[in-house]
Amino acid sequence: MTDHLDSFFQHADDLAWEATDPGVKRKIMAYGPDLMVVRVLFEAGAIGKPHQHIHRQACFIESGVFDVTIDGRTARLKAGDSFFVPSNLVHGVIAIEAGQLVDSFTPMREEFL
């Protein structure tokens, strides 16, 4: 099994950022068929447009302040907070302050690759 060890570990400096929307970029940190972890960086005022997908999503607010809307309900969340999005619910965020989110998706988001 040791010949596959390199595929177990990811170094953040070796992973590329991908611009997604104005003021927003993401970095895929790790993934397998049933799970994906993605870091998303927002400039202040940037918007994660309302969208929906079949994937269940858990998100940790690593830094910053965000207004998070899920299924028409909005909460202001800050570093250390988290949220969960069930499958197919419309959700989005607005970065009140610049910050980073760490998203986990199940199953993985194949369209991100």
UniProtKB/TrEMBL annotation:
Domain Cupin type-2: 39-97
Pfam short name (any one): Cupin_2
InterPro entries in UniProt: Bacilysin_H2HPP_isomerase, Cupin_2, KdgF, RmlC-like_jellyroll, RmlC_Cupin_sf
Source taxon at top rank: Bacteria
CDD domains per the UniProt record, alphabetical: cupin_KdgF
SUPFAM superfamilies: RmlC-like cupins
PANTHER family documented for this protein: H2HPP ISOMERASE
Protein name per the record: Cupin domain-containing protein
Organism of this sequence: Bosea lathyri
Taxonomic lineage: Bacteria, Pseudomonadati, Pseudomonadota, Alphaproteobacteria, Hyphomicrobiales
